[in-house]
Design goal:
This protein has 246 residues and is of the alpha+beta class. It has 2 domains: 3-101; 109-242, Cytidine Deaminase, domain 2 (3-Layer(aba) Sandwich). Helix content is 53%, strand content 14%. Helix 2 (28-37) packs across helix 3. The radius of gyration is 20 Å and the shape is globular.
């Protein structure tokens, strides 16, 4: 086994141990990466997993695609495509045979991407939008905030909290635009996401994503794994426990 194969083997072992310790902490791209371990031996499957998610939006859509669609993704051959379709078919069979186990549809960045990009077209100042959705992920209403200084958007927390109380959404989706030309999240973007995640958690609302728009491009905190990191790190129960220990 050469050096590269050793690196891949070590990475796979660490991923498997992480999964065994707590499957619930695994973000979607890592679950798909591990699934690809079974059909792509001795190669790095991380990049392939990300390509699949960028193409299809989420792991549910990946496992629902047909072989021809899957083969359009670089790194996916007929054998790998057939195995992914097999996993998806088994998943559907289990759900159809056990209706009570059926889960709610996964969040799909692809389903919202173009509509959200269109919301920011022509804007010369940074704006921030929060979408409130019901239990079926159907939009209820949205709130828009504009930054007069054109540098950053700070969400109006009391107004959002009031909207939560009035509309009682099950989910929230936040988005804002960058006018600087760079789509990369800033520290302020990360902090805003943390604040709104905690605000959502207090009101029993699930934050689906924070999307950054720059011209005709968009970045998803969900797909980048950043939202999952924030949710794990800033858990209300953990924060309350830390406060009590001080």
């Amino acid at each position: 086994m050469n050096t590269m194969e050793n690196l891949h083997a070590g990475h796979r072992e660490r991923m498997i141990e992480k999964f065994i310790r707590d499957p619930s902490v695994m973000p979607e791209h890592e679950l798909l990466e591990m699934l690809l371990f079974l059909v792509i031996p001795r190669k790095d499957t991380n990049a392939t997993a990300h390509k699949l998610l960028r193409t299809f939006g989420n792991i549910h859509n990946v496992l629902s695609a047909n072989p021809d669609q899957l083969c359009t993704v670089e790194g996916i051959g007929r054998k790998t495509a057939a195995n992914l379709v097999l996993f998806g078919t088994i998943m559907k069979r289990i759900i159809s045979d056990n209706p009570k186990r059926a889960v709610k549809p996964c969040y799909s960045f692809a389903a919202y991407k173009q509509e959200i990009i269109s919301k920011f077209k022509g804007l010369e100042t940074e704006s921030f939008i929060i979408f409130l959705l019901d239990g079926k992920k159907i939009p209820i209403t949205s709130l828009t905030f504009e930054d007069k200084n054109r540098y950053q958007v700070m969400a109006d927390i009391p107004e959002i909290a009031s909207a939560f109380a009035i509309h009682k959404p099950a989910y929230a989706l936040i988005a804002h635009n960058h006018t600087s030309g760079s789509i990369e999240p800033s520290e302020t973007d990360d902090l805003t996401t943390v604040k709104l995640h905690l605000l959502c958690a207090v009101h029993g609302v699930t934050l689906l994503d924070h999307i950054i728009v720059c011209r005709n491009n968009a970045l998803s905190y969900f797909l980048e794994g950043k939202l999952d990191e924030i949710v794990r790190k800033y858990n209300l129960d953990t924060l309350i426990k830390q406060i009590k220990e001080k």
